[in-house]
Amino acid sequence: MAIIQLSNISKTYQETKVPVHALNGISLEIEKEEFTAIVGPSGCGKTTLLNLIGGLDHPSSGRVVLDGTDITRLKDSRLIDFRLHKIGFVFQAYNLIPVLTALENVSFIMQLQGRPEKEIRERARRLLEHVGLGDRMHNRPNELSGGQQQRVAVARALASRPVFVLADEPTANLDSSATARLLDMMAQLNREEGMTFLFSTHDHRVIERARRVITLEDGKVVSDTKSLQYEAR
């Protein structure tokens, strides 16, 4: 059964006299535990699609159903609660809280969820160690490089044990070693905790690890392929 269902999704921006059609009638289904890359040229609608799936923006038309809930019909308070407990985000701009350390940033969402302090501390430390930042967990964002901030952002997205992880160019500022470490960790959580991953990416290293690749052009799906290994599961 599909855990993400998009039905005839369109998004038009009216910020100028000429409307911009970012997405044009996209219908997709993503199964639970998929590891999927959304690819395509800049401006094709990848980030817009992730924002609509994550409830950060509203479609101009169509429906977004996540884990059986039509989020396009949720009031703001319920949508915020849904995102808190179901969705992990990795943003291109990192969106770390500047006054908090790496450890505190990773812990923050779990604290909002009301998880036990011991669980929060142990999981945050373990994730930061997994991404190679065990020695930088008490540093604030302005004391970290762009690549290190990106790794903190990924650890934060995974910390709350979300059902879905939506990652917008998660490896854009990472070298090959850090990228491999992150993708290994995500693949492990995909297998062991059943997280469903959806990446927007230009990175061939992510695309090669994806089990499904969806290509967008001009706001439309132009191809949708699964790896032979995935189809055999």
TrEMBL record:
Gene Ontology MF: a single term: ATP binding
InterPro entries xrefs: AAA+_ATPase, ABC_transporter-like_ATP-bd, ABC_transporter-like_CS, ABC_transpr_LolD-like, MacB-like_ATP-bd, P-loop_NTPase
Any Pfam family: ABC_tran
Keyword Calcium in record: no
Keywords, sorted A to Z: ATP-binding, Hydrolase, Lipoprotein, Nucleotide-binding, Transport
Ranges for domain ABC transporter: 4-232
Matches recorded under PROSITE patterns: ABC_TRANSPORTER_1 (PS00211), ABC_TRANSPORTER_2 (PS50893)
EC number: 3.6.3.-
Gene Ontology cellular-component terms listed: membrane protein complex; plasma membrane
Keyword ATP-binding: yes
UniProt family annotation: Belongs to the ABC transporter superfamily. Macrolide exporter (TC 3.A.1.122) family.
Name the UniProt record assigns to this protein: Lipoprotein-releasing system ATP-binding protein LolD
Highest classification ranks of the organism: Bacteria, Pseudomonadati, Bacteroidota, Cytophagia, Cytophagales
